[in-house]
Amino acid sequence: MKLREFKYFSPRDLSSALELLAIHGGHAKLLAGGTDLLVRMKQRLLAPDIIINLKDIKELRGVQKMADGSVFIGALTQLTELITSSLIQKKYRGLWEAAKMVSAPPLQNMGTVGGNVAQQTRCLFYNQTEMWRQSKPVCFKAGGNQCNAVKGGKHCFAVYQGDLAPVLIALSAQVTLSGKDDTRTIPLRELYSGKGKQPLTLEDNEIIEGIVLPPPDKNRRCVYKKLRLREAIDYPLVGVAACVTLAVDGKTCEAGKVVLTAVGSGPVIISPTKLFKDVPMDDSWVNTLAEEAYKASKPVANVTTPPTYRKRMARVLTRRALNAVRTA
Ligand SMILES: Cc1cc2nc3c(=O)[nH]c(=O)nc-3n(C[C@H](O)[C@H](O)[C@H](O)COP(=O)(O)OP(=O)(O)OC[C@H]3O[C@@H](n4cnc5c(N)ncnc54)[C@H](O)[C@@H]3O)c2cc1C
């Protein structure tokens, strides 16, 4: 499990990192906490010639209130920093819950918000050692032309299992991306292509600067529910984020979204206006949305638990999340 040799750069500011990336482009990989990247390198899933360590770039760290009321979370902010932020705990409860459920404290101390949203899709037949993988034909994700998880599958079905993205998308968060010549801020949902092989729309020369949360809103409620094998360490088998903005009567939904993770190659968004705009949050609303979540979930046999169970659990967790937001 030794790493292959690579050149290592540790720039002190964002513009130096962007310059390095512009020079080395596709040969370079960005390193934040390394909890996703280094594991893949050790398994020889990738062998970059150049590593650009972002950890010394102080300007990319921390949770900051902005003048317009929004909140900026720097990409290099560790998950532990999110968990210990009273602003996140009090005003963005669902995000706080999700961060607490990522793996376990040692990994939360290393893992960053940028690395979490930019993590790769995974597959039981791909995220394995080189020797293990040699027992199977080369799959789409590894550059081959078949899927080892879905018999006869015509594309890669690797699953996106990030815990933060569903909550952030349900909150309508945005992501700020910096390239050598410009910076763009886009809705976070647009960072995901929904494709197993190439799940991110991030360009080779771009760095995630951070996440922009909408201003706190006392009428907004947000919850995250996660199914995993053990109550620590494990990736989600299904994760459901529900965020709603309540009308003044406290019983009507004015706007909202349900976003699922681990049931497809990207976050799955359920947000039809007719189910969220001026709708009473009664039992029928909960059941209808839970059914929508069931239909939209398309898990396949590429994690340790059967897809039919995960699909059913998407419905159960959606019901639990919505019951929690309407009674909180
Ligand atoms: C045992 C184990 C359990 C895990 N459990 C979970 C879990 O339950 N839930 C979960 O969501 N994740 C889980 N993970 C995945 C991962 O540890 C976390 O998502 C973590 O937050 C990743 O952050 P990082 O800083 O370590 O990312 P890194 O490994 O440093 O980077 C991840 C990817 O993002 C890219 N990247 C990093 N920062 C930037 C940036 N600023 N701009 C552009 N690209 C960037 C890197 O190039 C790399 O491709 C687990 C990992 C392990 C090993």
- The assigned structural class equals alpha+beta
How many domains? The number is 2
Distance between the termini: 47 Å
CATH topology of the largest domain: Enolase-like, domain 1
Secondary-structure map:
Blueprint: E1 7-9, H1 14-24, E2 28-31, H2 37-42, E3 50-53, E4 63-65, E5 71-74, H3 79-83, H4 86-91, H5 93-100, H6 105-110, H7 113-117, H8 130-133, H9 164-170, E6 174-178, E7 183-187, E8 207-213, E9 220-227, E10 238-246, E11 252-261, E12 268-270, H10 273-276, E13 279-280, H11 283-296, H12 307-327
Parallel strand pairs: 1-3, 2-3
Antiparallel strand pairs: 4-5, 5-8, 6-7, 6-8, 9-10, 10-11, 11-12, 11-13
Bound molecules: flavin-adenine dinucleotide (FAD).
Give an overview of the whole structure.
The chain is an alpha+beta fold and 328 residues long. The protein folds into two domains: 1-54, Uridine Diphospho-n-acetylenolpyruvylglucosamine Reductase, domain 2 (2-Layer Sandwich), CATH 3.30.43; 63-118 and 159-327, Enolase-like, domain 1 (2-Layer Sandwich), CATH 3.30.390. It is built from twelve helices and 13 strands. It has helices at 14-24, 37-42, 79-83, 86-91, 93-100, 105-110, 113-117, 130-133, 164-170, 273-276, 283-296, 307-327; strands at residues 7-9, 28-31, 50-53, 63-65, 71-74, 174-178, 183-187, 207-213, 220-227, 238-246, 252-261, 268-270, 279-280. Strands 4-5-8-6-7 form a five-stranded antiparallel sheet, with no helix packed on it. Strands 9, 10, 11, 12 and 13 form a five-stranded antiparallel sheet that branches. The protein has a three-stranded parallel sheet with strand order 1-3-2, with helices on one face. Helix 11 (283-296) runs antiparallel to helix 12 (307-327). The longest helix is centred in the last third of the chain and has 21 residues, at 307-327. The N and C termini lie far apart (47 Å). The chain binds flavin-adenine dinucleotide. Flavin-adenine dinucleotide binds next to strand 2, helix 2, helix 6, helix 7 and strand 8.
